[in-house]
Task: inverse folding
């Protein structure tokens, strides 16, 4: 009989942020696979959990995933945890989940804390649509290229960033995206939790004035501003495209698409005004 793989979310700071279900699952598991067994042990000791642990991190996941999948095929119940938050979110675990699925083993999420969602909820930025991008690239050119590609993104952007790179990241945001609203959420759920809000340059100035920047950081960037409505008369808008070398019917199509109108409406307006 096959076992089961449970993906257990753990606190991102405050150890009280764990669900009753997560505690029960960790107690009942045959084995807990941890990103860092020493970090996880702090949580397990807090709740008196004696389940044995095994390390599972980016340096050994390729070799260890098969072994853990074999244990589950033999009936073992394994809980996978990361150092903080939901496993697999910018953390190891994909190979193990894929191996379990390929072996016909049930994979069950045990949801809980998430730094990205906690930061988004308290950021004051739009929450109706967002894009999580993990960690920004370390290299300056790659970071700039990524941010420039997101210049027209209509959703709130969420990234994780290391404290020693946050100033460079904010500078890159200012250069690539301009004065969009930015929030730096630092040390979420911990004693020194704080939110810094403003433009990228304003937040960068606040952090640059400090002797050092420490702690876990979630970086959020507000939506791009909606373009100003185009109130140019339809005939004039079509004529401008035609003078630029666009065929008249194609110009009508483009204007209709830009204004959210039907081609018939634009054609009728052009014919009427002409």
Result:
């Amino acid at each position: 009989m096959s076992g089961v793989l449970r993906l257990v979310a753990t606190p991102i700071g405050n150890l009280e942020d764990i669900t009753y279900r997560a505690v029960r699952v960790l107690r009942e598991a045959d084995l807990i696979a941890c990103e860092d067994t020493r970090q996880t042990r702090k949580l397990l000791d807090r709740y008196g959990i004696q389940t044995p642990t095994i390390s599972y991190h980016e340096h050994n996941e390729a070799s260890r995933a098969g072994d853990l999948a074999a244990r589950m095929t033999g009936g073992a119940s394994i809980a996978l945890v990361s150092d903080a938050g939901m496993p697999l979110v910018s953390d190891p675990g994909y190979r193990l989940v894929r191996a379990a699925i390929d072996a016909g083993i049930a994979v069950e999420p045990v949801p809980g804390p998430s730094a990205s969602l906690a930061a988004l909820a308290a950021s004051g930025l739009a929450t109706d649509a967002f894009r999580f991008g993990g960690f920004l690239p370390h290299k300056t050119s790659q970071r700039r290229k990524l941010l420039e590609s997101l210049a027209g993104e209509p959703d709130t952007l969420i990234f994780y960033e290391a404290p020693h790179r946050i100033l460079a990241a904010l500078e890159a945001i200012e250069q690539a995206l301009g004065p969009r609203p930015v929030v730096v959420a630092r040390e979420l759920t911990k004693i020194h939790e704080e939110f810094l809000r403003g433009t990228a340059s304003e937040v960068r100035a606040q952090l640059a004035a400090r002797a050092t920047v420490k702690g876990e950081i979630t970086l959020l960037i507000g939506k791009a501003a909606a373009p100003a409505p185009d109130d140019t008369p339809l005939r004039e808008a079509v004529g401008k495209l035609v003078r630029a070398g666009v065929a008249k019917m194609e110009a009508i199509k483009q204007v209709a698409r830009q204004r959210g109108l039907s081609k018939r409406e634009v054609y009728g307006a052009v014919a009427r005004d002409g």
The longest helix spans residues 61-73.
